[in-house]
Fold this sequence. Notes:
- By secondary structure, the protein is α/β, with parallel strands linked by helices.
- It has helices at residues 54-61, 84-94, 110-114, 116-120, 127-139, 155-168, 185-202, 213-216, 239-252; strands at residues 10-21, 28-39, 43-47, 69-74, 77-78, 95-99, 173-177, 206-209, 221-226, 229-235.
- The chain has one domain: 3-Layer(aba) Sandwich (Rossmann fold), CATH 3.40.50.300.
- It is globular and about 55 Å long.
- The termini are far apart.
Amino acid sequence: MHITTSDLGLVARVSNLSKSYGHGRGQVDALRDVSIGIRRGQFTAIMGPSGSGKSTLMHIMAGLDSATSGQVWLGDTDITGLGDKELTLLRRRRVGFVFQSFNLVPTLDIAGNIALPFELDGRKPSTTERAWIDQLVDTLGLTERLRHRPHELSGGQQQRVAIARALAARPDLVFADEPTGNLDSRTGREVLSLLAAAATEYGQSIAMVTHDPIAASHADRILVLADGQVVADRGRSTAEEISALMLSMERAA
């Protein structure tokens, strides 16, 4: 019997995943035989020290980088051997991204930035999708800002726009890469609460790469990488518990 990613209650998974850069004595193993799944409708934090492989794992799961060996699934699609064109379409339609640097288009107003996934896909939002976007805009407090350009907004407001854009097309999975890195602590907490609410209230699957224990404490699940391998997989934890775990890992290294 063939067990699919969906049967396992996962939105994405990797099996025996390895990634190496360079050759011979200069070879660097960024990931070493990693098998892990991201659960559907859950907010997952991926943590680890610099060079642990957490960003590499995210890039491969999102179809932005390729594996040296192993397999990668998004939903029940094996994306391991897909070409650039198929990967571009897959990312456009099934993956959302929130970056540390916001990555908004400066020449577009806020409404245009939020609608960008649909523009890139060459279509207009359906009636249902339009209602969802309106709900997002209202929830994120952007109703009065739709005709503004990104430079007219604060960092926190720009990140809210990035979240709205990432959620607009209801992707299978949203990847958030250090989403609070450029925000002050209060605004960062607000953004993290919004991401957590997207998982809890809307069933959105989110995988967030972070080095910040406070950010990770908002997640339902915490995966910790070290030296290219998963060394811890735990449920919701306090910032203090996560800090203690990271400290113990550093001492053991």
